[in-house]
Specification:
25 strands; eight-stranded mixed β-sheet; elongated; 24% helix; 633 residues; single chain
């Protein structure tokens, strides 16, 4: 399966879109690190309010909450219900007031209209900031449904407030003026956890892909730290309550919402299975809440839904959706960790850790983590489980808290934290059996050492990169890694030296041939500045060079210089091709994996170049590096 088909399937399985529509939407995807676009702030608020109102469906449906399809965009979401009557609870979020009173029921400021048999809901003051488009599969007359709801309120002497055209509203007044304190509204209650609710609504079909799905109910509750969402998941009595795949897909950050949890401390007995999740690492506002999922056996009548599970492409599972079969892969279901490839096949390793170094102030130093992800992606495409670990002091939670501290804010209750085990997360979906994970470590040497030792049990290769520029390439972790390689950007060797001599008052250029030994020595002094070659044994060099370049050296001279560099203890392991175009190889927002926005020939050449690194790393013997000498002695 190609990577584009793979990510389209992974998205379609969570949203319920048709596969054709999912493929078209994937082409428009701006960030392949998340297959579903994140909602803007106002759009998140609309989706959070909607989820609360449709969370307890009154009618039976074969879809979760009666929603057959979700088509998400940044400032819009199209939600298609199975039947028109299932849209009725969503209308209760529209604002109205009792005749003769000023108290507003529902959500203040909402505006609703019918566009081509679709009810569109937005905030009247900002209709372009977010839209809920509600429709149904059976092509029900939703315009008539909205009119009948409005008529019913009028008969009860209630005044609908969602019919005011936004263009008829007076302009908002800005500036400093004394205003009366405004009463707290449902909007204020939802704001702390709108991101969590929006992520769940946009992936509503993850629930009916689990084994024995019989229905879900969603409720919400205010808390000191924000707002908590509760999902009551019902399964058929013959199906086990605990399902590893539930936690795995909720922890999945590429296709799933990327929540975190403590897999070891969840309550599970014969009556219910109770798990708690909270916001992903590094999430901003709108995630101050806890998701509590309680799984119980269904006590109602049998519902028209399949008892058999269906596979999740995002978890590396394969199956036959038309037959309902599923083959569950243990790659990520157990603790969201990959399964290392067999070390007996080819040059695969098990738990080998290497550190990337770069010359200080060189071009490669500022992009060392990106290079590590490129190499890791190439190894993952060949079936390896790869983890790229960066280190950054600014990522430490305490440092981040102090840097953002302001004395003008009132103290608030900290966001509830749940231990994440393990901490690394997938970077992209990788076709085949390989996997690419990444993690930015914080803290001191002991914490990083413990992390690397734990990772050895789960990965074939661990690539460590020190991303803190204040410490240069930072070889302080030497005792925890097995080998070191130096990444250098180098165009070519100098086969001849150009000098200028004055002859008869005219400066003339003269070319002096250079021996391979002299060229190797000059190249080392120019390109390996700051690398502690006198202390750290280097397994080899990885040279980044353009595919083509002017004044290229002769192949014989290149081979002779390479031999001299190997004699000096720095052999050249491989040369990574680098394109001249602005769309150079990079793990960026525009590429599904690092190697998927390039042509086939370039991908093959890059994978072959990266494969040449592994034999030298396997042959390198871990050793104890002597301590640094005291410069004051």
């Amino acid at each position: 399966m190609s990577i584009k088909n793979q990510v389209a399937c992974a998205r379609q399985q969570l949203t319920g879109e048709s596969l054709r529509v999912a493929r078209l939407r994937i082409q428009e995807c701006s960030d392949w690190g998340s297959l579903l676009p994140s909602a803007a702030e106002t759009q998140q608020l609309l989706e959070s309010l909607l989820l609360q109102h449709v969370g307890k469906p009154q009618a039976v449906s074969r879809y979760p909450l009666g929603i057959a399809e979700v088509v998400p965009a940044s400032a819009r979401v199209d939600i298609r219900f199975e039947r028109g009557d299932l849209v009725r609870p969503a209308l209760e979020m529209l604002p109205f007031r009792e005749r003769g009173q000023r108290t507003i029921h529902g959500v203040p400021g909402l505006w609703a209209t019918v566009v081509d048999s679709t009810i569109e809901v937005a905030f009247a003051r900002r209709p372009e900031a977010g839209v809920l488009a509600l429709s149904s599969l059976d092509s029900s007359d939703l315009g008539g449904l909205l009119s009948s709801y409005e008529s019913g309120l009028s008969k009860e002497r209630r005044v609908p407030l969602w019919t005011v055209d936004p263009s008829a509203l007076p302009p908002e007044k800005f500036g400093i003026r004394r205003r009366k304190p405004q009463p707290r509204t449902v909007i204020d209650d939802h704001r702390p956890a709108v991101g969590l609710a929006s992520a769940l609504l946009r992936r509503i079909h993850l629930w009916d892909r689990l084994a024995g799905h019989a229905g879900i109910q969603v409720t919400v509750e205010r808390a000191d730290h924000g707002m908590d969402w509760h999902i009551l998941r019902e399964v058929h009595p013959s199906v086990p309550l605990h399902d590893d795949r539930l936690a795995a897909i909720l922890l999945e950050p590429v296709a799933g919402p990327g929540l975190i949890t403590d897999l070891k401390n969840h309550h599970c007995d014969g009556c219910n299975c109770f798990m708690e999740f909270t916001a992903p690492v590094g999430s901003g506002s709108g995630w101050r809440g806890i998701l509590r999922v309680e799984t119980v056996a269904s006590r109602g009548p049998e519902r028209p839904v399949s008892k058999r599970p269906r596979h999740f492409t995002a978890l590396g599972e394969v199956g036959f959706p038309s037959h309902g079969d599923s083959v569950t892969s243990s790659q990520r279901a157990n603790g969201h960790s990959p399964r290392p490839a067999d070390a007996t096949k080819g040059d695969q390793a098990r738990g080998r850790c290497t550190q990337l170094l770069a010359p200080r102030f060189g071009r490669s130093q500022w992009d060392l983590r990106g290079i590590a992800l490129e190499i890791g992606a190439a190894w993952a495409l060949e079936g390896s489980a790869v983890l790229v670990v960066g280190h950054d002091v600014s990522a430490d939670p305490e440092v981040r808290r102090l840097s953002h501290h302001t004395g003008l804010e009132w103290p608030t209750v900290d966001h509830p934290s749940i231990a994440l085990t393990p901490p690394w997360r997938p970077e992209r979906l990788v076709p085949g059996n390989g996997s690419l994970f990444a993690y930015t470590a914080s803290g001191y040497r002991k914490e990083v050492n413990a992390l690397l030792q734990e990772a050895r049990q789960h990965f074939n290769w661990i690539i460590f990169v020190d991303c803190n520029d204040d410490y240069g390439m930072g070889p302080y972790i030497e005792e925890s890694v097995d080998s070191h390689i130096v990444v250098v950007y180098s165009r070519r060797y100098d086969e001849r030296l150009v000098t200028v001599e004055a002859r008869n008052g005219i400066a003339e250029h003269r070319e002096v041939p250079v021996s391979p030994a002299a060229a190797a020595m000059a190249w080392r002094h120019e390109h390996l500045a700051g690398v502690p070659l006198d202390r750290v044994p280097v397994a080899g060099l990885v040279l980044r060079q353009p595919l083509t370049g002017p004044d290229a050296c002769s192949p014989d001279f290149v081979d002779q210089v390479d031999a001299e560099l190997a004699r000096l203890g720095t052999p050249v392991l491989t040369r990574l091709p680098e394109r001249h175009t602005s769309g150079r190889l990079r793990l960026g927002a525009s590429s599904p994996t690092v190697l998927d926005n390039v042509d086939d020939d370039y991908r093959v050449a890059y994978v072959e170049a990266c494969a040449a690194i592994r034999p030298a790393l396997l042959a390198a013997e871990p050793c104890k590096i002597p301590p640094r000498t005291d410069p004051w002695d």
